[in-house]
């Protein structure tokens, strides 16, 4: 957690002459190492724990899946693919270890190589590229156990599909503006809050949101 806070702080500071490039690379490497260790610990200990929490298998093996669409229209500037997969795919792997489900990012924008994505679109086994960006969660187990696993995985993935407040410091001003405007719309009460786009053009740690009574 402290490493992530350090990275956010460094990202917010002016990078004169690229002096932070080396430090940022070292931070990324350390974050990746810690996450890998956490993933290995989870992988070693979560399987037995997960199995002990499940009921005894009843009936034949079933294959279940659920598709969760990524809200790219609501948050067009947010890197959902990176957040779901994590560095070197460790976030997705950790979720798979914890839930017993397979988690895959599919649809438009799911591939890092956009040129290759265009080349594969329309080909057999690549039909998902014609769909909107989504997360495909699959599981294979007895029906009663598969339903529990799938429900857990869906709950965890849904948490990744809503940008957290801490993520705002890594977002563009336009995204912050859209998030705030959407949040104000959902607020109940007689006060109409307006956010002016020009107020979002300053640094993340200096941003001021102007609220006016309508």
TrEMBL record:
* UniProt KW Cytoplasm keyword: yes
Please name the SUPFAM superfamilies in this protein's record.
Eukaryotic type KH-domain (KH-domain type I)
Keyword Cell wall biogenesis/degradation in the entry? The reply is no
GO BP annotations, alphabetical order: mRNA processing; mRNA transport; regulation of mRNA splicing, via spliceosome; regulation of translation; RNA splicing; skeletal myofibril assembly
Q: Which organism is it from?
A: Sinocyclocheilus grahami
Output a single Gene Ontology CC term carried by this record: nucleus
Q: This protein's superkingdom?
A: Eukaryota
Q: What is its main location?
A: cytoplasm
Q: Tell me the ranges covered by the K Homology domain, including all copies.
A: 62-162
Q: Which UniProt keywords apply?
A: Cytoplasm, Developmental protein, Differentiation, mRNA processing, mRNA splicing, mRNA transport, Nucleus, RNA-binding, Translation regulation, Transport
What GO terms are given for molecular function? mRNA 3'-UTR binding
In the record, the note on similarity to other proteins reads: Belongs to the quaking family.
Q: What is this protein called?
A: QKI, KH domain containing, RNA binding 2
Query: PANTHER family in the record, alphabetically?
Result: PROTEIN QUAKING-B-RELATED (PTHR11208:SF152), RNA-BINDING PROTEIN RELATED (PTHR11208)
Location in the cell reads: Cytoplasm; Nucleus
């Amino acid at each position: 957690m402290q490493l992530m806070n350090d990275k956010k702080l460094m990202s917010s500071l002016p990078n004169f002459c690229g002096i932070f490039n080396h430090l940022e690379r070292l931070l990324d490497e350390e974050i990746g190492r810690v996450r890998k260790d956490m993933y290995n610990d989870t992988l070693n200990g979560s399987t037995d724990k997960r199995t002990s929490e499940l009921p005894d298998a009843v009936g034949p093996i079933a294959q279940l899946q659920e598709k969760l669409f990524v809200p790219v229209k609501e948050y067009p500037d947010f890197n959902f693919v990176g957040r779901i997969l994590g560095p070197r795919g460790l976030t997705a792997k950790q979720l798979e270890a914890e839930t017993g489900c397979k988690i895959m990012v599919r649809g438009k924008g799911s591939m890092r190589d956009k040129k290759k994505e265009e080349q594969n679109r329309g080909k057999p086994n690549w039909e998902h590229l014609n769909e909107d960006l989504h997360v495909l969660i699959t599981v294979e187990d007895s029906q009663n156990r598969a339903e529990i696993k799938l429900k857990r995985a869906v709950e965890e993935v849904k948490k990744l599909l809503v940008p957290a407040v801490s993520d705002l410091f890594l977002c563009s001003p336009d995204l912050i503006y859209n998030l705030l405007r959407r949040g104000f719309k959902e607020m109940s009460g007689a006060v109409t809050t307006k956010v002016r786009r020009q107020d979002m053009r300053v640094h993340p740690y200096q941003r001021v949101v102007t609220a006016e009574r309508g």
